[in-house]
Amino acid sequence: MKWRDWRLAFYLAAAGLLWSVVVGVLLYLLPLGTSVGASSSGAEVETRERVFTLSLSSVWLLIVPVLLCALAAWAAARHHRTPLIIAAVLLAVFALLGLLSIGVAYVPAVLLLIVSVLASSPVRQAPTDGDSGRPQRE
């Protein structure tokens, strides 16, 4: 397989999409920690604290990276380089803004999209013998 290929760009963007889906599910499901408290009857109650609740106002932070990676995978599948670049830049900005919290989990997806953009870049091909532009000797 060639290094500069749209198929490779799509595979990399799809891997970024898979990474962001897995990270989003893990961040949503895994508990941040547990706390033990007393109930009104005096019994100890253990509660698990999560980073995200089921409200739309907090879950959008997990949906945005998935949508950006889906846009990148779609753009790579359709051979559109501009939306691929835009999605990679927006995901990088998202990861940079959230670097101290959940943004660090999306850095591998950002790297995959950057390599996907590089793999989709046009390649200049060497001219063939008849198209060299130099006068031929006779």
Account of the 3D structure:
With 138 residues, the protein is mainly alpha-helical. It has four helices and two strands. The chain has helices at 6-29, 56-77, 81-97, 107-119; strands at 31-38, 44-50. A two-stranded antiparallel sheet has the order 1-2. A hairpin with a 5-residue loop joins strand 1 and strand 2.
Structural class: mainly alpha
Q: What is the number of helices?
A: 4
Strand arrangement within the widest β-sheet reads 1-2
Order of helices and strands: HEEHHH
**How many whole angstroms does the radius of gyration measure?**
23 Å
Label the overall shape. elongated
Mean pLDDT: 82
List keywords for this structure.
single chain; 138 residues; mainly alpha; two-stranded antiparallel sheet; 2 strands; elongated
Blueprint (SSEs and pairs):
Layout lengths: L5 H24 L1 E8 L5 E7 L5 H22 L3 H17 L9 H13 L19
Antiparallel strand pairs: 1-2
Helix pairs in contact: 1-2, 1-4, 2-3, 3-4
Please give a quick description of this structure.
The chain has about 140 residues and is mainly alpha-helical. The protein has helices at about 5-30, 55-75, 80-95, 105-120, and strands spanning about 30-40, 45-50.
